[in-house]
Amino acid sequence: MAEDSTELTPFKSLERRGLWALLGFTAFALLGFATFGRNPALLARFPSLAGFYQTAFAFFAQGHIVVATAAILVILVPRTGASWVPAFLAVCGISLTAEWVGTSTGWPFGRYHYTELLGPRIGGRVPWLIPVSWFLMALPSFDLAERLGAGGRVARWVLGAAFLTAWDLSLDPAMSHLSPYWVWDTEVGIYGMPLRNLAGWFGTGVVLMAGIEATGGRRIVASLPPRLMAAYYLAVLSLSLGMVLVSGLWISVAVSIPVVALILARGFRGGGKVPVGRPALDGGGTA
């Protein structure tokens, strides 16, 4: 199979600017968190900043999702047109259902609730931005699984779900332990996160990967530069990973680093895509 030429061309200017905007926004947010979030005594010394910091606390979390959405749209729209929309709707529908059931019953993640810091909530439960944020990492996770040679659809779903769950290894400690964007109703687990949450993420992730594939996900990611998608995954990850790093949550850092190392070692190496429509290695339909 001929090597995908998109892997050999430089990032398009707009795509590159989108990534740099996301990284710059993240760096600014991490600077504020490391300065004031980790040193609240500074706010007491500068009372005029206290109100600004409270506003910024909500703004940067919501803004990170908005900027990350813009960054992936400037990749998807020119290269795939509107073909990504069904996958987006599938991920949003599946994740909203999982979050709604989770905040209502505690299944499959454990009992938790969102605060007002992530903006308006659907039915007073799930912030509107949350289903979007699932898509932002579900698609690059699917892409990574596809290009790391996961043969057969079930293997792709499992590996993609593993990449998606790896994000939560720093996301939950950052957003629920270090900051109250959502609150767990138990203190049992790692940094207040129940271990069943990881099983819930993984199970939800498998369903999301299946949803992406069923809505043309393989054709979508075949049109995307693999190095760019790996870079995007790491750019989104950098906010939560940076927060746990500056806070010294070393368990979270330690379990996240192998994923980062794998993406750096393999995600930027290049290599061709599995041809869409090739017979599945697991014997079911097409791969």
How would you describe this protein?
It is built from ten helices and four strands. With 287 residues, the chain is mainly alpha-helical. The strands form two sheets. It has a two-stranded antiparallel ribbon with strand order 1-4. Helix 5 packs across helix 7 (196-214) and helix 6 (153-177) packs parallel to helix 9. The radius of gyration is 19 Å and the shape is globular. The two termini are 16 Å apart. The model is unreliable at 1-11 and 271-287 (pLDDT under 50).
Bin the helical content. Answer: 55-70%
Provide the β-strand percentage band. under 5%
Widest sheet: strand ordering: 1-4
Task: Count every beta strand, where a strand is a DSSP E run of 2 or more residues.
Answer: 4
Low-confidence stretches: 1-11, 271-287
Mean pLDDT: 87
Helix/strand/pairing class, anyone?
Answer: mainly alpha
Element-by-element helix/strand order: HHHHEEEHHEHHHH
Short description:
This protein is mainly alpha-helical and 287 residues long.
Fill in the keyword field for this structure:
10 helices; 287 residues; globular; disordered N terminus; two-stranded antiparallel ribbon
Topology (elements, then pairings):
Layout: H1 13-37, H2 41-45, H3 48-80, H4 85-105, E1 112-114, E2 121-122, E3 126-127, H5 129-147, H6 153-177, E4 182-184, H7 196-214, H8 217-222, H9 226-246, H10 250-267
Helix pairs in contact: 1-3, 1-9, 3-5, 4-5, 4-7, 5-6, 5-7, 5-9, 6-7, 6-9, 6-10, 9-10
